[in-house]
Design brief:
122 residues; alpha+beta
Length: 122
């Protein structure tokens, strides 16, 4: 629903929205959706030059504080299966595995088996 709402708010028409869904169709077989009442954290990363300085942990802490201020009690984060650096960072921040979805077509296109989702209380 968020994509449809964002498309409407940005003035995209129905055919443009349909094109967006066609371009992302390869993820449909393995996408993991956060829980309905979860604070969703997306795309936490740093450039290689800046890794190892605690920046990702600081970004996650900031995102968790924003979720708590917005009255959420649980946070959710998803990442590509095989992204061991992300998995270590999220586990260090207190997140734990809850689910994963794999899809061979997705793997053939991206060389990642699918998506994994971690959660934690905030």
């Amino acid at each position: 629903m968020a994509i449809e709402e964002a498309a409407e708010n940005s003035g995209l028409n129905a055919s443009e929205l349909a094109a967006i869904f066609r371009r992302g169709a390869y993820t449909a077989g393995c996408w993991v959706q956060g829980g309905k009442d979860d604070w969703l954290i997306e795309h936490v990363a740093s450039l290689p030059l800046h890794r190892g300085r605690g920046l990702v942990q600081a970004l996650i802490d900031h995102a968790l504080a924003a979720g708590k201020a917005a009255a959420f009690s649980r946070a959710s984060i998803s990442f590509l299966i095989g992204n061991e650096a992300a998995q270590r960072c999220y586990a260090k921040a207190g997140f734990a595995f809850i689910e994963e979805k794999r899809n061979s077509d997705f793997d053939a296109l991206t060389h990642a088996a699918g998506f994994r989702r971690f959660v934690r209380n905030i």
